[in-house]
Specification:
- The chain has 117 residues and is an alpha+beta fold.
- The chain has one domain: HIT-like (HIT family, subunit A, 2-Layer Sandwich), CATH 3.30.428.
- It contains three helices and five strands.
- It has a five-stranded antiparallel sheet with strand order 1-2-3-5-4, covered by helices on one side.
- The longest helix has 18 residues.
- The N and C termini lie far apart (31 Å).
- The model has no long low-confidence stretch (mean pLDDT 93).
- The structure holds adenosine monophosphate.
- Adenosine monophosphate (AMP) binds next to loops.
Length: 117
């Protein structure tokens, strides 16, 4: 079934397709978004494909969610002077297209007075 096929992020984690990787730990990978919505636009993903959404991750492995957030902070410190927007889209209607939980780290100059991308 197509829903069981590896997501694009699982294929990036497996190095089956290329990505501009900026950070890796035992359980997390971060790389540049292929279609950036801000001067700095990074994706932070857990290596496990178990969790589709941030809500599932929070319920199932809060320590891993905390690692995603601390990784986002560290990357924003390195790439965006520590100021950034952290976005987790949940559901198609909210713009989620990859159902392998991921944090968008947006920084480097964002439009004032806006939410989302
Ligand atoms: P979302 O819409 O929240 O599910 O976010 C998915 C993100 O993945 C989008 O911002 C895409 O631009 C990004 N994306 C899709 N394919 C790739 C890829 N091969 N490398 C890097 N980013 C990707």
């Amino acid at each position: 079934m197509s829903s069981d096929a590896p997501s694009i992020f699982t294929r990036i984690i497996a190095r089956e397709i290329p990505a501009d990787i900026v950070f890796e730990s035992e359980s997390v990978l971060a790389f540049r978004d292929i279609a950036p919505q801000a001067p700095v636009h990074l994706l932070v993903v857990p290596k496990t494909a178990t969790y589709r959404t941030v809500g599932e991750l929070a319920a199932g492995d809060p320590a891993l969610l905390a690692e995603l957030v601390t990784t986002a902070q560290r990357l924003a410190d390195e790439h965006s002077d520590g100021q950034y927007r952290l976005v987790f889209n949940t559901g198609e209607a909210a713009g989620q297209t990859v159902f392998h939980v991921h944090a968008h780290v947006l920084g480097g100059g964002l439009a004032e007075g806006t939410l989302g991308d």
